[in-house]
Amino acid sequence: MTSSTFIGQQAAWQEWVSALASERMHHAWLLAGAKGLGKGDFARAAAAELVGAGEGAVVSPSTHPDIHILEHLPANDDEAKKKAEGKPYQSKRNISVDQVRSMIRRLSTKPTMGNLRAIVVDPADDLEKSAVNALLKALEEPPAGTFFLLVAHQPGRLLPTVRSRCRVLRFAPLSAENLDVVLRREFPEAEATLREQAIAAAGGSPGVALAFVEHGLSKVHRLMQQIMSDGDSDFLLRGALADAMGTRPSRDRQLATLELARATLASELPTAASRRQPAVIEAHAALTRLSAQAPTYNFDSGLLILEIGGLLASAAMPREAAHQT
């Protein structure tokens, strides 16, 4: 693995590699930054680099016995079957205390293939309260050779006692140039106009930009911007937004639209008039909550899109101000 693998995050990767080469590497790391910056993939690659350091071997984070990943589990047995078959599946809302306790029991034994072990929590924001307390005990007294990588989209949601035990590795939004490199790499056939639209909409998030291109969200984004600009008192724009989404949009398309709406609001905040900023902030917070719930609940797609449109409309420019511009 090289720093060029993580476009725009080379400094973070170099910091991790330098720490691996040091004699006193910190045992807990907090990977902090907005959602969609690739922190989860980074954490898995960093774990693989840790347990395979100096061996020259290719390590699979999902199967290596000395990499333990705590993430959202399937919601039930039926959803677990879907996951096993490679199909979209619903997951549980939180990472449970039972998952953390299972990990802690594993720490009572020595690593299987070497002297080092990596624990990835993705995302640590979604740990149950009791799970956080259990994890804290492990962070306070980690076994020798055990290292933690906590992915956090909103580090402020973590207990100060957890944050204080971690070395923070920050992930910044990508530049337009770096986003273009990512899009060209993943979608070499994408037209320049589509890439430009994706970059403008993404707010520096490669996750949003990639989903924009993959799901063809140009029209959806234009409608979002129009709702933000003009409001939607007669619900016509929300109806057009639902039509643009399609009658049965995939779950991935729905989630991509949610993240795009959050990015659209976030990009609006710096230029919004002071009297309008509270409404933009409130709508963004509501979309953040909705985004956290969406992967774990079976929302009706039509109602979800109307909810997104309603939140965008709630942050729209006041009509009298719009007439003056």
UniProtKB/TrEMBL annotation:
<dbReference type="InterPro" id="IPR050238">
    <property type="entry name" value="DNA_Rep/Repair_Clamp_Loader"/>
</dbReference>
<dbReference type="InterPro" id="IPR027417">
    <property type="entry name" value="P-loop_NTPase"/>
</dbReference>
<protein>
    <submittedName>
        <fullName>DNA polymerase III subunit delta</fullName>
    </submittedName>
</protein>
<dbReference type="Pfam" id="PF13177">
    <property type="entry name" value="DNA_pol3_delta2"/>
</dbReference>
